[in-house]
Specification:
The protein is an alpha/beta fold. The protein has a domain of 181 residues: Ribonuclease Inhibitor (Leucine-rich repeat, LRR (right-handed beta-alpha superhelix), Alpha-Beta Horseshoe), CATH 3.80.10.10. The chain contains six helices and 23 strands. The strands form five sheets. The chain has a 14-stranded mixed β-sheet with strand order 1-2-3-5-7-10-11-12-13-14-16-18-20-21, with no helix packed on it. A hairpin with a 2-residue loop joins strand 1 and strand 2. It is elongated and about 95 Å long. It binds 2-acetamido-2-deoxy-beta-D-glucopyranose (NAG) (7 copies). The site of one 2-acetamido-2-deoxy-beta-D-glucopyranose has 4 residues, from loops.
Length: 473
Amino acid sequence: MYSLRGVIVILCALLSASRAQDDVKKGPCDVFIQDVNNLTLNCSRRNIDRIPAWPEEIHKIAGKDACVLITFFNNSITNVTELGTVPGNKIAISFKSNRIKEIEDDAFKNIHRLVYLDLSSNRLSGDVLRSEIFQGPYKNGVYSEISLETLNLGYNQIHSLDKYLFQYTPNLTRLYLNNNPIEILDHVTILAISSATKLEVLDLAKTDIDAIPLETFRGLVNLKQIDLSGNQFLTVPESLSLVGSTLQYLTFNNNPLVELNDDSFLGLSNLLELEVGENNYLDEVKRSTFTPLKSLRVLHLCHNKKLKYISHNAFRGLKEKWTLKEVYLDDNNLSELSTDLLPWDKLEVLGMTGNNWLCNCDLANIVTKQNAGSKFKPGEIPYCAAPMRLSGAYITNITVSFCPQFDTTFALKKRFSVSDLRPKHVLWSILGVGTVVGIGMICGLFFNFIKAFFKKNLRSQPIQYVNINDDLA
Ligand SMILES: *[C@@H]1O[C@H](CO)[C@@H](O)[C@H](O)[C@H]1NC(C)=O
Ligand SMILES: *[C@@H]1O[C@H](CO)[C@@H](O)[C@H](O)[C@H]1NC(C)=O
Ligand SMILES: *[C@@H]1O[C@H](CO)[C@@H](O)[C@H](O)[C@H]1NC(C)=O
Ligand SMILES: *[C@@H]1O[C@H](CO)[C@@H](O)[C@H](O)[C@H]1NC(C)=O
Ligand SMILES: *[C@@H]1O[C@H](CO)[C@@H](O)[C@H](O)[C@H]1NC(C)=O
Ligand SMILES: *[C@@H]1O[C@H](CO)[C@@H](O)[C@H](O)[C@H]1NC(C)=O
Ligand SMILES: *[C@@H]1O[C@H](CO)[C@@H](O)[C@H](O)[C@H]1NC(C)=O
């Protein structure tokens, strides 16, 4: 009886212990050694509030190119103190999801080969991020540099960066500043960013900024990828053209812009992929919007719930040297597309689901005659919304018996839309008309003057006037 109770107690204790182990592990971190070149130290979810000394096993790693990953994901560390030496050639450390609000000077100086540091989802402010935290060992009177290539500072409380922050990290290649209350890229922050001349990836999503001053990009001669989503931009920032010769990926989702036009992507001639989505106020893509994008391969123009008009000239000037392979127009508010919008048959993938397609002859032409219907991904065939009798049918199912015979003259017949007009076009038109009228008036006056002159002075001479009006008629 007594022993049975004892067994039950022990069983219960074991059970609850193992359950506790499932949730939160206490005690030392787990070491996984894949081979001489690959070690993982897992300190995730262990209720740690300070950084422990490394376990002995960490020094078992021998390979010259060894990779070491140390993760403290989801603990309650508040203070990053000086870390102990870690062997290996590429060291990655993650402090993601802690409560860090302090980092000591020299915190990483024993880890020369630190290439990846994740400090996202902490409580860091800009003041804590001083250049001293990244300085390497002190040698011959100077602090040396560290190898840091990827730095994730996302989801913190950063308003501004120290202008010398990247002084000791010359190889910084990827910088994530997303989800911080930056609001304004002030002078010092700009100096900090532009000092990272090897930067290739910059994430400024959800930082509440509405402008990027030109100086920000001055030093960034290697920038390949930028994310500006979830900000307050009313237009695509002009300063981007400064990195136009290197920029390959631009993400511009969720900003309050209302239109895209021929100024939007000026100078981005090397862009390979563009994503413009979830812009809830975007209702129009105007003529020549994509014209500067002479290398574009993938266009995502999706989830813009008000977007209802794409100018038939949006890709003007690109058709001769067509580079686009994938065009996604899903989940906008489009109902019509122009037959000559783009060379449909040259695409590899086309997405058109989630719009209000009016299944008319133009759409039938695009889908059937111009072969767009064969570019949809399996299971992503768009439906007709109108006219009523076709509503709910696949647009690839519509028969074209009611349409005029498709010939080239039909496709070339351009429709002119008032919304194609831009203030500068109107201005030029007015100037043009004005000039013609002016010249006409001058000619008229001159003619009258000659006439009067001849009438007065040469009345006796028989002159044959040619009536210009009669002649023209
Ligand atoms: C190291 O091992 C982990 C599995 O433990 C693996 O996911 C990772 O890709 C390996 N890294 C390298 C560089 O071999
Ligand atoms: C690290 O440990 C935690 C807690 O035991 C576990 O949930 C997680 O899957 C581990 N991660 C890896 C990469 O082994
Ligand atoms: C971290 O762990 C806590 C429990 O300790 C949990 O409530 C929280 O959701 C976790 N956070 C993340 C980002 O996983
Ligand atoms: C962080 O830790 C260091 C070393 O233990 C200590 O000197 C410093 O006061 C700590 N900072 C904070 C804000 O707790
Ligand atoms: C930066 O990268 C270069 C080239 O890969 C390398 O020679 C140099 O040692 C690196 N700098 C640091 C501080 O690791
Ligand atoms: C989509 O367009 C239709 C008219 O074509 C309009 O009635 C509707 O309000 C638009 N939806 C949005 C979200 O603007
Ligand atoms: C498309 O056409 C096929 C064959 O004509 C028919 O079976 C199918 O129901 C149609 N589907 C839609 C969604 O129009």
